[in-house]
């Protein structure tokens, strides 16, 4: 008999089909009343396939007493209660190792875009302004100072790329990483004060919520740029809007927002911010690899009792979630 799993939302036509072939899948997003559907679901639900932006709502987790494994497409597991999974012996897997390059590529793209004003210049040409006006000078990124917040796999991939631009690199995080060539700075405010560009690659969740505060932005200063490819929750968005509108920082480039897919209206009116719809891992190649790993983690669990790419130790890093009513 195929193991019964629950899928929180559509992932991709290919992966959805593969999951349906290997498992007895309860497609939660197609149920009008999800919790009631669980009650009538027949065999006990032993696994979940989900994605990072959806995670596993707390009331869903609580409603699945037989759950053994969660396989998540993505590495940001801040929407899954890892501590309670651990307490219940539920294995949680993310797609670690296959998306770092893509997210780091995008971070570099955003650094260059923000400083060289690429998106703004493109809007300028499209608006037919080139024949009448001069586009203002931008800022060089080669040789500038880069502060990385969170030197995990993605942060390190950003650092390696930035080194090729002769950037001077420092980082901050929960602790100094032994064996890294980059200088560690334990204060985020100090790092921001030193840096020309601050790139966020840190985990989301309670421990990092709002850590890029008005004080950090003030330290970054009127010549500084903020790049966020981590989680919107890491930044105090109201403070960022104020800093961008008032010249407190030079510019920003954001792939993530606190309440996706809603982007605060005030950002749209600003020229000095690049806005993207959370596309860090959004390439055909990386999504293919992520999806293969979502499937492999479930297959491996049901064949051997262990997922392939487990979540690292849980902190209290999560946002409380609930199912839509
Ligand atoms: C998402 C992400 O997985 O890895 C993460 O934490 O946020 C992304 O890669 C992606 O949006 C697809 O769900």
Please give a structural write-up.
Residues 36-306 form the D-isomer specific 2-hydroxyacid dehydrogenase catalytic domain. Pfam families: 2-Hacid_dh (PF00389), 2-Hacid_dh_C (PF02826). Belongs to the D-isomer specific 2-hydroxyacid dehydrogenase family. The strands form 2 sheets. A 7-stranded parallel sheet has the order 8-7-6-9-10-11-12, sandwiched between helices. Strands 2-1-3-4-5 form a 5-stranded parallel sheet, with helices on both faces. β9 (197-200), α9 and β10 (225-228) form a beta-alpha-beta unit. 35% of the residues lie in helices and 15% in strands. It is an alpha/beta fold and 325 residues long. The protein has 2 domains: 4-98 and 285-316, NAD(P)-binding Rossmann-like Domain (Rossmann fold); 100-275, Rossmann fold, CATH 3.40.50. The chain contains 12 helices and 12 strands. It starts with a strand and ends in a 21-residue tail after the last helix. The protein has helices at residues 13-22, 34-39, 58-62, 82-88, 100-116, 118-126, 153-163, 188-194, 214-220, 237-245, 265-268, 284-304; strands spanning 4-7, 24-27, 47-51, 69-73, 91-93, 145-149, 168-172, 183-184, 197-200, 225-228, 251-254, 273-275. The structure holds 2-keto-D-gluconic acid.
């Amino acid at each position: 008999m195929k193991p019964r799993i629950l899928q929180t939302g559509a992932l991709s036509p290919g992966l959805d089909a593969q999951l349906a072939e290997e498992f007895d899948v309860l497609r939660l997003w197609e149920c009008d009343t999800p919790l009631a559907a669980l009650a009538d679901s027949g065999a006990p639900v032993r696994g979940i396939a989900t994605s990072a932006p959806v995670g596993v709502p707390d009331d869903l987790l609580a409603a699945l007493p037989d759950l053994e494994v969660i396989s998540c497409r993505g590495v940001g597991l801040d929407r899954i209660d890892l501590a309670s999974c651990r307490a219940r012996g539920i294995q949680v897997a993310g797609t670690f190792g296959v998306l770092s390059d893509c997210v780091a590529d995008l971070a570099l793209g955003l650094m260059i875009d923000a400083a060289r004003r690429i998106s703004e210049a493109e809007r300028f040409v499209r608006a037919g302004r080139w024949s009448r006006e001069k586009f203002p000078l931008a800022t060089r990124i080669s040789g500038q100072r880069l502060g990385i917040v969170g030197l995990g796999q993605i942060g390190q991939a950003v650092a390696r790329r930035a080194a090729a631009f002769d950037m001077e690199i420092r980082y901050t995080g929960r602790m100094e990483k032994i064996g890294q060539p980059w200088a560690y700075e334990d204060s985020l405010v100090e790092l921001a004060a030193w840096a020309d560009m601050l790139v966020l690659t840190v985990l989301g969740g309670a421990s990092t919520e709002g850590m890029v505060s008005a004080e950090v932005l003030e330290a970054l200063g009127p010549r500084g740029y903020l790049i966020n490819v981590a989680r919107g929750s890491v930044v105090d968005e109201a403070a960022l809007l104020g800093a961008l509108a008032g010249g407190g920082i030079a510019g920003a480039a954001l792939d993530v927002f606190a309440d996706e897919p809603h982007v605060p209206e005030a950002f749209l009116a600003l020229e000095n911010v690049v806005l993207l719809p959370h596309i860090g891992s959004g390439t055909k190649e990386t999504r293919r690899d992520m999806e293969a790993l979502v499937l492999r983690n479930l297959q491996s669990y049901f064949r051997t009792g262990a997922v392939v790419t487990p979540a690292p130790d849980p902190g209290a890093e999560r946002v409380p979630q609930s199912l839509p009513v």
